Amino acid sequence: MPRVLLVLSAADSLELADGSAHPTGFWAEEVAVAHQVLTSAGVDIDIATPGGVRPTVDPISLDERGGVDPEEGKKHGAYLDSIRTSLDTPLALDDVDGLSYDGIFLPGGHAPMADLASDATLGRLLDGAEAGGSVVGALCHGVAALLSANGTDGAFTFAGRRLTAFSDEEERQGGLGDATPYFIEAKLRERGATVTPGAPWSNTVVVDGRLVTGQNPQSSRETAERFVELLPR
């Protein structure tokens, strides 16, 4: 049975460009759908966060405030409740043995921008996964977490790789706009990645070797399914 580390942010707020704090957390659909797809495929999942802190769901990801259909929000909320024990007792990233996993999956919500994007422990795990041939999956703002990974020479581990992420245009249309502390698409390009976003709010997934990235919540299911396809059997 393949083993996957589902890494969630421990942040419940994000410092905006003007220095104010914006409440945030993980995006309900992205975690619920990924967990469901992986579990249905027979994958053994461990959830981890920085410091083993219980992750926070972004409340707007469950209702109309986040552009979410109320019935869909209820469905995702119910699924999260069904895995509440795992969410409430995550592993601490510092205690994780990366060699024990066949893949690492990184869902979004704005929270990863606050901590995972600069988490040195996650960076080492991702660098080891990339070097060891494990599968790496990242979705929406979770792609920002890839920024934590640098090789021994200090170069961005995923420089030159093809990927997508929550696009700058999507951030302007339905995200934080100019209040965002940084634009993920632009930051990844700056670090040397080849970012190829699709149309705003389209189901867009990019697979480059054993790296799978999805653009937004609309890409949740396909990102998880393509990730599963690359896991060992």
UniProtKB/TrEMBL annotation:
Classification via Gene3D superfamilies: 3.40.50.880
Pfam families the record matches: DJ-1_PfpI
Keywords noted in UniProt: Glutamine amidotransferase, Transferase
Annotated GO CC locations: cytoplasm
Single GO molecular function: transferase activity
Biological processes, Gene Ontology terms: methylglyoxal catabolic process to D-lactate via S-lactoyl-glutathione
Cited InterPro entries: Class_I_gatase-like, DJ-1/PfpI, Prot/Nucl_acid_deglycase
DJ-1/PfpI domain mapped to chain residues: 29-229
Record-given protein name: Type 1 glutamine amidotransferase domain-containing protein
Native species: Nocardioides cavernaquae
